[in-house]
Design a protein that fits this description.
about 325 residues, alpha/beta, Rossmann fold, N-(1-d-carboxylethyl)-l-norvaline Dehydrogenase, domain 2, 2 domains, 6-stranded parallel β-sheet, 4-stranded mixed β-sheet, about 10% strand, globular
């Protein structure tokens, strides 16, 4: 399979889903010379890609017929299933005799999704003569925009190696996590940790304000201390600005921490913190709306105190100021 993609610019890639994350990943491919065919329910989302030289297809089947790799980056497992299994969907294109002639086609699932569903759909792709890999991303939309995001990739090693030229074009740190579905499990695990960190930071900032601390000073105290984290250096800034714009919404948090809870329950783990986080975000989504920015979970504390947890001098959005560099595979530590 590794001969399918000998370089990042040699494959024609179909990209389905040009939202907050998908649009930025697709942008990295296009910016770096990859031949791109795009589809999205919103014509406005496709317009800048078409203007920049990408093509589109009339259906998922046509997109799959014309491409070596089909990437999906969509908001829910149901949306992905519809794109693959629906009438004239991607699977029909994988099963078509109309081939690019470059070998087996690859389906790359870049959504944050249920690992069981990835494996179910992956089996259908393989039955249609293709190969499957799940490769969700982590590190925020600002890093997706610059190609500096991290990517987990689960699948057969030869499929991973075939995809690697594209993965290092979209991301900086690429980790092969094991078999198909393993990347989706680890993505859910890391999103759970980010959510726990976000909720604890909201409590830390609100408590600092209630205790009379200057919030800009509190931010720096956390940043230079053992309490620091990636979430603090990004989401705490847009919390204090007041925009709360991190390009991630409460419904997506509810989905991700729900998937994490499902994995734990499936294996009989009696978690204590996870149910609390599920309840906190279910309440936040009910109060402020599913599409409210996730850092606005702090409003639950602002409503109680009557205060605004904000401070001057912080940005309204996070921008990655690191230069775009070629990505590379991350090595896993093993005993000698």
């Amino acid at each position: 399979m590794a001969e399918v993609l000998s370089g990042s610019a040699t494959a024609r890639v179909g990209f389905v889903g040009l939202g907050n994350v998908g649009g930025k990943l697709a942008g990295s491919l296009l910016r770096n010379g990859v031949e791109l065919v795009v589809r999205d329910l919103e014509p406005a989302a496709m317009a800048p890609f078409l203007d920049a030289g990408a093509e589109t297809a009339a259906s998922g089947a046509e997109l799959a017929e014309r491409c070596d790799v089909v990437i999906t980056c969509l908001p829910s497992p149901a949306a992905v299933a519809s794109v693959l299994e629906g009438a004239d969907g991607v699977l029909a294109g994988f099963d078509s005799s109309d081939s690019t002639g470059s070998g087996a086609k690859i389906w790359a699932e870049m959504s944050t999704t249920d690992h069981h569903e990835v494996r179910r759909l992956g089996a259908l792709v393989e039955a249609a003569g293709g190969a499957a890999i799940d490769c969700p991303v982590s590190g925020g939309c600002h890093r997706a925009a610059t190609g500096n995001i991290s990517i987990f990739a689960g699948g057969e090693r030869d499929t991973f190696e075939a995809m690697l030229p594209l993965l290092v074009t979209m991301g900086r740190r690429i980790l092969h996590t094991g078999p198909l579905g393993s990347a989706s499990i680890l993505k859910v695990v890391t999103n759970y940790l980010a959510t726990a960190n976000l909720v604890s930071l909201c409590e830390a900032l609100a408590t600092s304000q209630a205790a009379g601390m200057d919030l800009a000073t509190a931010y720096e105290a956390i940043r230079i201390s053992s309490g620091n984290s990636f979430v603090h250096e990004t989401e705490s800034q847009v919390i204090l600005n007041g925009s709360r714009d991190i390009n991630f919404t409460m419904d997506l948090v509810c989905k991700d921490i729900g998937l994490f809870a499902d994995i734990a329950a499936e294996h009989g783990l009696p978690l204590e913190l996870s149910p609390v986080l599920v309840d906190v975000f279910a309440d936040g989504a009910a109060r402020y709306g599913d599409r409210e920015w996730s850092p606005n979970i702090i409003r639950r504390l602002e409503d109680v105190t009557g205060q605004s947890v904000t401070a001057p001098g912080f940005p309204s959005e996070i921008v990655d100021d690191e230069p775009e560099v070629a990505g590379a595979e991350v090595s896993v530590r093993r005993s000698a």
